[in-house]
Amino acid sequence: MEGAGRRRPTAVVLTALPVEYEAVRQHLQNVHEVRLPQGTLVDIGRIPGLDWYVALAETGPTNTRAALVAQSTTEHFDAEALFFVGVAGALKDDLRIGDVVVARKVYGYHGGRESVDGFAARPDVWEPAYDVDQLVRSAGRNRPWAFLPPDARSTAPPRVHFEPIASGDVLLGFRDSETARRIRRHYNDAVAVDMESHGIAHAARMNRAVRALSIRGISDFADPDKAARDASGSQGAAARNAAAFALRILRDLRPAEQPTRERPPEPTAAVVVSGSAQAPGPAAWGSRPVVKVEGHEYLLYEGPGDLLHEARDGDVLRRQAVARVVSGAGTSRGTYAWLRQVRWTRPLPDGFDPLAALEQEARLCRDLRGPEVVQLTRDGETATLALAWPDDPKLGRPLGTLHELLPEPPVPADPLRLWSVVKGLAEVAETLERLSAERLSHRALQPTSVVTSRPRMALRDLGLAAVPPRQGENPGPHQAPEQRYGSRFRPGPATDVYQLGALLHRALTGRVPQPGLPPYRGSASVPDGLVHAVAGALREDPAARPGIRALRLALLAAARELVVPPQR
User: What percent of the chain has pLDDT over 90?
Assistant: First the structure.
């Protein structure tokens, strides 16, 4: 936890294209997806070595879209920094592909007046704040590529240019076009052109406390060769360089001093509130380290991923956290629990009762030998369910999750960890098999959903088993194809098979499976049966996947073939 009176600030980073988004996203850890009231999907995460949350979103091209998304995201997260990171076309011949241009000025080049005398420019110019200007210059002099992955570095590093950028809604592909000539005639110090920086400048003007910048990697020369350069990978390299230098600037950017507050401060980086602004009611869990629930007191813990999390879906507020039981009748003091709470303010149109769903999950846990129920309460509009969380008695702390066993991309798991993951997920599949027999499914499996209990791995809860399936549920990297909007398939037990396959794929490759990527082909140290099981589990069509029992047996067989660790 951080010191009193201080909260971790948020920097909004926007991109226009998927390649730009991925260039930033690969740096994020402990990511949550948040849906803003307007529908914008934002990834919230941390970057090692930075004292910031990063809120990452993809706007699509054009200044209008950039301005609208920038305004709503900076307001929603009360952001202190706003960066637009992406690619641009060079207007000067001394720039090279892969160089980075940080906007010292942003010209909105469409402003002007057309008359019989021709076009008369009416420049709209924005400049970053002086302290940000100085940070850019300092970062360019002092290890500018500290955040560039080692495999992306070359013998001739890209150069950083702190120069003006022209911004409009025209995609330039011809340097002798009327638009290009207009830029040269009226904004002849601009070294690059893009389609979003002017929108960011407008959003920055409306939020004067936000430090804003546009950081662009050069991917083409705004000429007829643009398409060929893009196809050769120039956009990926340019976006990677722009993302790395943006993080280098963010490393030195200091958040504003936090005002003294009468109430306890918000947590450092633990709670992400998604959706609309929170309605009046109980204070956020992060502002109350100890939560009282009908005779029980719980001390909340921070953790990776969603282990301390709040999210709002319309009129339903959901909270969850790993907690230590401080006091409570019939409960051993010092034990740990997985604490979940649902607060509901009005009936839902489809008649679904989220409080009853939490009660139903408690019954399923008892009937299907799921996690032990520590406490279940319902008080008016609020229901709370606490499930037992295994602990390490020697270290006096809650046990970790599969998150700690899985490798960081792009490195696959070592043999011992792979054996532990395969064996553990086979054990988890037993509970999923019991759910499937009841025509129910978890549908929310991710690394933090699996507790590395001893001697077996176990589920922390039953996920969405008590909630009717719907498209759009379980957003994030482990969402199955049938859970996405527009799918013609209904989520169900086959969804659990896919998500187990996704966890295994990450253990084997260090990466979450993504559409369009080639399937995992295996290696000499990985049993063929495991390779085939993962490939089958990740099929797009749920009907083509193996059943949960067949997958469990395949994992047990693969665990026997893997190197078994020596017994102590």
Answer: 45
